[in-house]
Design a protein that fits this description.
277 residues; alpha+beta; 14 helices; globular; DNA-binding
Length: 277
DNA sequence: GTTCAGGTGGGAT
DNA sequence: ATCCCACCTGAA
């Protein structure tokens, strides 16, 4: 099996895995991860100093390098952090290997519609059901079975009641209506990446089940609009606790979303650590 | 039994 | 505009 090796410069798969931006990236063995993006499958092995991508040179340069945003230097983002901002400095040091992925728009729309009032394991489970029921079965180079992410056209054919049987709950209607709207071309997904952040966000919010928070997640994790700063209940609490005078969005103009990820990951992992004490 | 988990839509003010 | 609350489900 052909593989590509890259140094781990501000790149940690486990951190990306735990940052909640991707629901189809999983650790399958020690150091080994698998990710499915749209129709594509990739096996990854990450050592302390380097990462092996099990794919061809072409697949790496044309897709995965871009997908993991490996052309961008995240050290620059981290170095720009206000040294007097102890909380953000600690958060960034803790999650320094996080990268903002460039995921598929439709996949993020569905994933974050399902994410509301839901936890990560359950979101993953719901996505797994959708892929197994409506995606296409494929095999990895090593023969592992996986399922592609179902298209809007395919999901628009599914009854709302069927989604409810699959335990999507009240999100069933949102998904049904959004899949239909996208399949009918009411919102043209291919146009979104060319739009400014605010415009793309407004366009996304035309879809049923997509409010400000979900739209920001889609802007950040699919459209790579780094201005997007999704505020969920977790981030809200951190802002109230650590930034009573307001978060310095001006200072991080153009990449506040990267800071959001450091904060989110830091808060999420510390929350778990606290519970285990 | 209650609350909460990475919110949103719809209706009342 | 802003507030309020119902909404599916499963786990603590």
């Amino acid at each position: 099996m052909h593989k590509i090796e890259v140094p781990n410069h501000h790149f940690r798969i486990d951190q990306i895995c735990g940052s909640g931006q991707c629901f189809r990236l999983d650790r399958v063995e020690d150091r080994i991860y698998e990710v499915i993006a749209g129709e594509k499958y990739l096996k990854i092995k990450q050592y302390p100093d380097k990462t092996s991508f099990y794919c061809t040179e072409k697949e790496y340069t044309c897709f995965w390098k871009m997908y993991f945003d490996l052309d961008v230097c995240y050290e620059t983002y981290i170095e720009s952090i206000d040294k007097g901002d102890t909380y953000l400095s600690k958060a960034a040091a803790f999650g320094e290997g996080i990268r903002i992925l460039r995921q598929d728009v439709w996949e993020m729309i569905v994933s974050f519609i399902l994410s509301q009032q839901n936890n990560i394991p359950r979101i993953k489970q719901l996505i797994r059901i959708l892929c197994e029921q409506c995606g296409e079965e494929r095999r990895s180079p090593e023969g592992r079975v996986y399922y592609t992410f179902p298209t809007a056209e395919r999901l628009s054919e599914v009854e709302e009641s069927t989604f409810r049987e699959w335990k999507l709950g009240y999100r069933s209607r949102y998904l049904q209506e959004t899949a239909r709207a996208v399949a009918e071309g009411k919102v043209r997904l291919s146009d979104l990446s060319g739009m400014e952040y605010e415009t793309a966000k407004k366009e996304l919010m035309k879809l049923c089940g997509i409010g400000a928070k979900v739209a920001d997640c889609i802007c950040l994790f699919a459209l790579h609009k780094l201005d997007a700063f999704p505020v969920d209940t977790h981030i809200q609490k951190v802002l109230e606790r650590e930034y009573k005078k307001g978060f310095p969005f001006e200072r991080y103009r153009g990449y506040a979303g990267v800071m959001q990820q450091y904060i989110f990951y830091y808060d999420l992992k510390n929350g778990v650590a606290m519970k285990e004490m």
